[in-house]
């Protein structure tokens, strides 16, 4: 399972304030805590700053890289901001979040990732808007994967995001996402997945509980990447157990390792 720690996002008030005040040590501490909790990548997002986004993203990347040995997931729809963040990145191979079939976004981001070893989050979205059904997601995924591969992106570096949408707005959004994961996994066994899981519970009470159950259901169908809060011990425990039950944990090694380190909290 690929875990992207989601906490360094300027839309969170404490992070937005830390960026404004240039509180380097606070950002570094959040990065360290996520690394210790089991994150594989540290997401950095400065989207609320708009005109200053590129400079803020560069600052975030530098501070995260100074604090941990993990690569960043550089999170922006702006090619200019992505390039600024990449220029500051020094440890490991970063992840770019994201590209889609929306023409402007596709053209700009493709110019960055073409013929590179960068990991790339590929949103199952086009100029027609957000997909509603599994079929729409699979159709977009098929076109997007093939275009990326044709442009020199290794298939194993593609992290498809079938786009989680709030079940509170449509009863079918949960199952349509899960079935899309299963269909895409069958069509492209070498690709990975990445998604913002918490979108499923937007607007509903007891969101953490719903998010955890949804993660377990999606992992059973082939999901292998999540953008989550790795400090949420219950969520992380559910992920480990789900992977073990889905046959993705040979001889239950990860389960036993987590048990010995007392990582389970239910």
TrEMBL record:
PROSITE patterns: PTERIN_BINDING (PS50972). Pfam families: Pterin_bind (PF00809). GO terms for biological process: methylation; pteridine-containing compound metabolic process. The keyword Methyltransferase applies. It comes from Geosporobacter ferrireducens. This is Methyltetrahydrofolate--corrinoid methyltransferase. The keyword RNA-binding does not apply. SUPFAM superfamilies: Dihydropteroate synthetase-like. One of its GO terms (cellular component) is cytosol. Keywords: Methyltransferase, Transferase. Belongs to the vitamin-B12 dependent methionine synthase family. One of its GO terms (molecular function) is methionine synthase activity.
């Amino acid at each position: 399972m690929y875990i992207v720690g989601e906490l360094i996002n300027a839309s969170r008030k404490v992070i937005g304030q830390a960026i404004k005040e240039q509180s380097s040590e606070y950002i570094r501490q959040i990065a360290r805590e996520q690394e210790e909790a089991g994150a594989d990548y540290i997401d950095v997002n400065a989207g609320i700053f708009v005109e200053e986004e590129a400079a803020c993203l560069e600052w975030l990347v530098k501070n995260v890289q100074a604090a941990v040995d993990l690569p960043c997931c550089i999170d922006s729809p702006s090619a200019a901001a992505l390039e600024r963040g990449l220029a500051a990145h020094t440890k490991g191979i970063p992840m770019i979040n994201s590209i889609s079939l929306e023409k402007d976004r596709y053209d700009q981001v493709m110019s960055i990732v073409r013929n590179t070893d960068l990991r790339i989050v590929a949103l199952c979205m086009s100029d027609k808007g957000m997909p509603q059904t599994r079929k729409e997601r699979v159709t977009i995924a098929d076109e997007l994967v093939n275009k990326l591969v044709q442009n020199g992106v290794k298939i194993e570096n593609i992290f498809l995001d079938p786009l989680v949408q709030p079940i509170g707005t449509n009863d079918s959004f949960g199952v349509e996402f899960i079935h899309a994961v299963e269909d895409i996994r069958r069509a492209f066994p070498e690709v990975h997945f990445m998604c913002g899981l918490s979108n499923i519970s937007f607007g509903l009470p007891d969101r953490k509980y719903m998010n955890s159950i949804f993660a377990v259901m999606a992992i059973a169908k082939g999901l292998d990447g999540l953008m989550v809060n790795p400090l949420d011990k219950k969520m992380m425990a559910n992920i480990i157990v789900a992977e073990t039950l889905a046959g993705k944990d040979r001889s239950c090694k990860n389960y036993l390792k987590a048990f010995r380190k007392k990582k389970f909290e239910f």
